[in-house]
Each structure stands twice: as structure tokens, then as C-alpha cells.
Amino acid sequence: MRISTHPQAMGMALGLIGVTIFGVTLPMTHIALGGFSPFFITFGRAVIASIAAGLTLLLMRKRWPKGQGAMLLGAGICVVYGFPIFSTTAMQTIPASHGGVILGILPLLTSIFAALVDGERPGPAFWAYGLAGAALVVFFSVRDSGFHLQAGDVWLFLAAVTASLGYVLSAKVSRIILGWEVISWALIITAPLSIVATLLVMKGGIQTPTPAELGALSYLGLMSMFSGFIFWNAGLALGGIARVAQVQLLQTFVTLAVSAVLLAKSSAHRQLALLWL
What we know:
single chain; mainly alpha; about 0% strand; globular; disordered C terminus
């Protein structure tokens, strides 16, 4: 392998690790909803992730990155609040496996924001492949269950939009500071709101959760909200936002597989089987 291609290959590898972690998010959200309200999940997972981020920053003795406040705040609003609120709301009315299929449009949306916000200019062939990938995902959904637009699908589309924009903003800052610092500072800058909101929704937001539901919430905070972004931000910055974003097409496979195992939904099993036809 030539040295010039090494950063892209490393970016793809790191992106794949991040996507694998993110792919478990929707099934875990579905499980957590059995013991917590959507808003408690949104803000509670942010508090869990903020604690982990704060301890990591203290341990590594990192100082606030001057001049990056606006970008970090924008990224934080998108990935700490936007995606969790919209996706958790969606999971109340549609199955996690279905959500995984719809989020297959994430790569295309991320590439679009990379062009609009970051100035990346992929060639015509790249856009053709990106559109083909998104079209195949949509076709798969239609083929399996006769796709009908529901309120949950609208919420999930908004989740995809906010996630894509947050990815691009995070990746831009990741070229200046390390990827794990980006998500850490984004969590810290939004932590005051996360803590206050968690306290406000706590009274009606906890419904005697089981160990599985507590575990799902912990995963959402420590993995989906924190650890996954460490790999994802670094991958986007290293390999190019638009190109590495295409790895997200594999997120659908991860979500469907995990949904079939953890949620034991018959529809998830059917969708998973169709993927291998």
C-alpha cells in the first residue's frame, strides 16, 4: 500500500468501527424506551456521556480549544440533542429494524453537507454511486414491507439530517484537534442544559427500568454518544468526510442484525434474510 493512500484506508477503518457502534443505537433505544421516556433517554444519555468526557479531559489535562466554540456548539446541538430526540421519538412508532433501513440515506446526506459546509467536491462518479446506494436502501424497504410514510419516518429523516450536519461540523474541528476531544468538548459545552433538562424530566421519565433497560441507556451514553464518535470523527477527518461517510451504508446491516438478535422481531428476521438474497 502506498503511503499516500494510507490515511484514506485508516479513515475507512476508523469509520467502520464508529458505524458498528452506531448501528446498535436504534435497537438499544427501542429497549430503553421500556423503562424511560424519550426525553429522559435523550438528556440522560447526554449526562452519562458528559461525565465520561469530562473525566477523560481531566485525565488527559486538555485545555479548551480557543476559537472553536461555535463549531463545537453546533456539533453538540446536532449530535447530543438533535439526533437523539428525533430518533427516540421515531422509535416509539416504528421498529428499530425499519429505522436502520431508513437511516441508509445518512451517507448521501453527509456527503451533501460535506459539499455545502466543508467545500468538498467529489466527482460525478462518486455522486452516482452515492445515489445508487441510497436508492438501493429505499428499494429494499419498499420491497420488504410495501413502505408507507408514517410520522415516525418523518422524525427519523430529521434525525438523519441533524446527524449528518453534526458529523460534518465535528469532522471540520477534528482536523484541528483530535476526534475524541471534539465530542468531549461538544458534550461539555452542552452539559449544563443536559443536566437541567434531565432533572426536569426525571420525575415522569423513569418507569421502573429493568437491568436490560438500564444497560441499554448506559450503552447509549457511553458508546453511541461518546466512544463511537471518537472513531467516527477521526475517520472522517483522516479519510475525507464524503468518502468515509459511505461506510454508513453498512450501518443498516448492523442495525438489522442486532435487531434480529436483541429484539426478536419477525420483521427484522425477514429484512435480514432479504439482505443476503
